[in-house]
TrEMBL record:
It comes from Streptomyces poonensis. Gene3D superfamilies: alpha/beta hydrolase. InterPro entries: AB_hydrolase_1, AB_hydrolase_fold, Sec-Metab_Biosynth_Hydrolase. Residues 4-237 form the AB hydrolase-1 domain. GO terms for molecular function: catalytic activity. This is AB hydrolase-1 domain-containing protein. It comes from the Bacteria. PANTHER family: AB HYDROLASE-1 DOMAIN-CONTAINING PROTEIN-RELATED, ESTERASE_LIPASE_THIOESTERASE DOMAIN-CONTAINING PROTEIN.
Length: 244
């Protein structure tokens, strides 16, 4: 049986993994979701000083405090950035990294690098104008759906996402990842790709080509960008298969 540490993406907390965690635990795995600083029940712990290093420390500290070994680190979306950093720092505590509709970050890369410059500038303006200079609110679904598939999110699930999402500390988007940011050579590398990401991988986008090659193992999940909400059982099944 595996030990999963599940790290949520932007605007989310440990709550987002509840259904997937339930299925994994039913199957005998240890499944431990965490909430990053400044989000969900830890919203009051965030501030202008909250950055990528803060979230990397959240992940590494969680693993070390609980003296976890042979860990499978699971990163959804934004969490690819702190999980990449944590995997490079946790050494032989990590057995496997799993990127859910996301990909590992390179040293000196930041989240804003993934966006067109105009979109990044719009986010900076939004945070300055209405986020107290450090909080990024989740956009409306009609905007969110332009970049991320909402497939599988019915009205009930969208309502959960809308009401439980919290503004995200923007410093985690602007700070560049410092090394070390590469897990050991023996660490298993897994990608779970959902609808839009599957299309990019199949199209042969050059910067993603390495994800279709060993040592990476790829699993496709036919749902939208938030599989822990739209297909939690299927996501748990895929995670269980990846560690079997």
């Amino acid at each position: 049986m595996a030990t999963f540490v599940l790290v949520p993406g932007a605007w989310l907390g440990a709550w987002a993994w509840e259904d997937t965690v339930h299925v994994l635990r039913e199957r005998g795995h240890t499944a431990l979701p965490l909430t990053l600083t400044g989000l969900a029940e830890r919203a009051d712990q965030g501030g202008p000083q909250t950055d990528l290093d803060t979230h990397i420390a959240d992940v590494t500290g969680f693993v070390e405090r609980n003296d976890l070994r042979d860990v499978t680190l699971v990163a959804h979306s934004y969490a690819a950035a702190p999980v990449t950093g944590a995997a490079g720092r946790l050494g032989d505590r990590v057995a496997r990294v799993v990127y859910v509709d996301s990909a590992p970050f390179a040293v000196d890369m930041c989240v804003l690098d993934l966006m067109p410059p105009q979109e990044a500038d719009q986010l900076r303006h939004q945070v300055s104008a209405s986020g107290d200079g450090w909080r990024l609110a989740m956009p409306p679904f009609e905007v969110l759906g332009l970049d991320s598939s909402l497939d599988g999110l019915d009205e009930d699930r969208r309502d959960v996402l809308r009401t439980r999402a919290t503004p995200h500390p923007f410093g985690t988007y602007t700070q560049r990842l410092a090394g070390p940011a590469e897990p050991g050579p023996d660490v298993d590398r897994v990608l779970i790709a959902c609808h839009d990401f599957t299309g990019l991988l199949d199209a042969g986008v050059p910067m993603l080509a390495f994800l279709n090659q060993p040592p990476w193992r790829r699993f496709d999940l036919p749902t939208g960008h938030w599989p822990m909400l739209s297909a939690p059982t299927e996501l748990a099944d895929t995670l269980a298969t990846a560690v079997s």
